[in-house]
Amino acid sequence: MGQSGPMTPQQYVQQKAVASGSSFYYAFLFLPAPRRAAITAFYAFCREVDDVVDEVTDPGVARTKLAWWQAEVAKAFAGQPTHPVMQALMPHTLDYGIEQRHLQAVIDGCQMDLEQTRYLDFAGLSGYCHLVAGVVGEVAARIFGQTDPRTTEYAHRLGLAFQLTNIIRDVGEDAMLGRIYLPVSELQQFDVKAHEILKRQYSDRFTALMRFQAERAHRLYEEAFALLPDADRRAQKPGLMMASIYRTLLREIEHENFQVLHQRIRLTPLRKFWLAWKVQALGRMS
Fold it and tell me: Which range is the signal sequence, renumbered to this chain (predicted)?
């Protein structure tokens, strides 16, 4: 890296955000510096906690690490952060209304991943999505500059649409970990057996099930846009950038006929940047 000495907390979270290659990163580029610093630190926190579940193979070790994060969040809000992510995030919490309950909810969502690999119905899945995506959307909306309380409902709905898009994209990868997020009741509705997904077997029934999931995700995007108050439309542009990127990804998956069991369908970084720029410069959603 060509620098001497340890990284600052700000450098640490920046590196964490860039390394993820996430669509979120492209939306942050257009923010003014203080908001960008806040969202980068918050996003790095979400990544750290998420990585515990994704990268730690022993559930006991993962539980111990999540318990450490719960304690670290409590300590940080008591004025004693020790992890660079919390050191980078804490200076922004007052300015943007980031509360301890928000961060604990994200940890709770990751704990659900350790306890549960199936969801009986969409209501159960929605509860999980609320913790790992809805609350994240709520905090992001505050950082972006929310002025109208109704924007929180928009942020929750958009977070749900994002998470469902992720679930559709990651069916194959999740199956390799023994996880199926698609509700059991909907697998039954389309006569798709869990073992077919775990063995990553395609069928017309699977395609029909996935089309049903995609249609619901599209409906949630539309509902979210309708819920965004005009007063906050300009401030919430970063969320609309992410929506443009995610929805383009969803259409790409549809175009590929839901071939998600053996591969992860992606957009190139250039395409993500272009979609974000179009929303920023032209106010146009793709």
Answer: none
Q: Are residues 26 and 64 in the same domain?
A: yes
Rg (CA), the chain: 19
60, 166: one domain: no
CA distances from 70 to 59, 125, 211 (A): 16, 23, 38
Residue 225 corresponds to which tokens in the numbers above?
């846009």
In a shared domain, residues 158 and 272: yes
Contact residues for 128 (Cβ-Cβ < 8 A; gap 6+): 109, 112, 116, 119, 181
Model confidence band, residue 21 (pLDDT cutoffs 50, 70, 90):
low
The domain containing residue 192 runs over which residues?
Answer: 120-128+141-285
Summarised one tens digit per residue, pLDDT across range 46-81 is 999 999 988 878 889 999 999 999 999 999 999 999
Taking only the tens place, the pLDDT of each residue in 166-177 is 999 999 999 998
- Report the distance separating Cα 163 and Cα 158, nearest Å: 9
**Residues constituting the chain:** 286
Provide the CA 37 distance to its chain's centre, in angstroms.
18
Q: Measure the CA–CA gap between 104 and 99, rounded to whole angstroms.
A: 9
Quick check: pTM over 0.90?
yes
